[in-house]
Amino acid sequence: MRMRNIFCLCAFVFGLTAQLVRGQAAAELRDRQRNAQGWPSQAVRASHGMVTTDEELGSEAGVEILKRGGNAVDAAVAVALALAVVEPAAGNIGGGGFMLVRLAGGKTTFIDYREVAPGKATRDMYVGKDGKLDEEASVIGYRSIAVPGTVAGLALALKTYGSMKLADVMAPAIRLAENGFPVSKRLAEEFEAQRPALQRFAFSRRIFLNDGKMFQPGDMLRQPELAATLKRIARNGAAEFYSGETAHVIVDDVAQLGGLITLDDLAKYQPKVREALHAKYESGGHAWEVLTSPPPSSGGVAIIEAQPVIPTPAAWPRAIRLLRIPSSALAKVLTPRIFPSLMRPATPSPARTRSTAATVHTLPLPLAFC
User: Fold this and answer.
1) 1 contact partners, CB below 8 Å, separation of at least 6
2) Structural domain count, the chain
3) What is the pTM of this model?
């Protein structure tokens, strides 16, 4: 994980079936027996619906919304905003993401709210005077920040498919930011691991490094500035982030520290609605319809490309190698503006599959894949 400054470049991807569901009480989840690592010792089961994230407080936010009568998109938006508080490295209103939605009747849609490059960005802005790429410049510092899409994308999803008001689904996130939450062992370790980068900037040093005193597991992390920002968005809508007081605060801070985002960049940002990729997967006499993400996400294309060569667990290491090919290929050809001509067919041809599979033996097995 690489944690950046307070406006992290990040992606949040969340897909849920958009039908009215009721969740289990969060207390039920906490009361389950857990192993030494803190995981439930038995699989969690639910008869109507389920919320899952890698942060318990984020999941509880979604369960809270379901218990109040919200649908799955209401819960997804609440979870995304809660993660902006409790998982600062990955869930963040200063970043962007995707949402794949399947309605109860089978209709699907894909909302793309990834970040876009500022208008002042140039092709060689991360190339040093020696002509070599400065890999750090694109991920750390104010010039690495793209125009955020999270707030606009979540607001669009809620308006189109949700049933609750923005202020209502933001309530759990505001509460967590204002009242604070106990720092987990994992989060404390992440802050320590990213200390060299975080201490470069006054805001991240004060908020995430506790002014150098460092958070220990169990310490309370309160973020009053974030709470105030969330309250303004809850009160004024997404326009607050892109043209209101928050927009001016962002641009002023970015300008003072060498960033490129302008008020015009924020005002022009628009999330995009795309068609989800559809494919068929067959194994052992069973068939499934696969619904997944289109470009600019590389994950959906990679999954579809890999399907023909992952029929058995023995083939999984090979499939992981294969999944790297579409991702690296898309990274070379996709730009912030996605051209329709670059869209790949949802069903790879047999010839293409044989060609791709023949290549995987030359690729090293990655240490991690996501």
Assistant:
1) 89, 90, 190, 193, 194
2) 2
3) 0.80
The answer on 332 and 227 residing in a single domain is no
Give pLDDT tens digits for 289-320. Answer: 999 999 888 888 878 877 776 666 676 776 77
Q: Are residues 153 and 226 in the same domain?
A: yes
Confidence bin at 35 (pLDDT 50/70/90): confident
For the stretch 99-148, pLDDT in tens is: 999 999 999 999 999 999 999 999 999 999 999 999 899 999 999 999 99
Residues 262, 226: one domain? Answer: yes
DSSP letter assigned to residue 201: S
Cβ-based neighbour number of residue 143 at 10 Å: 18
Sign, CA dihedral 119-122-128-129, equals negative
The 10 Å CB-count burial string (b at 16+, else e) for 308-331 is bbbeeeeeeebbbbbbbbbeebbe
Residue 317 sits in the same domain as residue 246 = no
Rounded to whole angstroms, the Cα distance separating 96 from 164 reads: 22
* Whether residue 232 has pLDDT greater than 70: yes
Inter-helix orientation angle 150-161/72-86, to 10°? 160
Residue 230 structure tokens? 């969330």
Q: Are residues 103 and 158 in the same domain?
A: yes
User: Quick one: pLDDT at residue 326?
Assistant: 53
Cβ count near 39 (within 10 Å): 9
Structural domain of 351: 277-362
In angstroms, the CA 43 to CA 321 distance is: 30
Residue linked to tokens 């999984």: 316
Per the model's pLDDT, the better-predicted residue between 296 and 250 turns out to be: 250
| Residue 133 sits in the same domain as residue 247 | yes
Statement to judge: residues 304 and 355 lie in one domain: yes
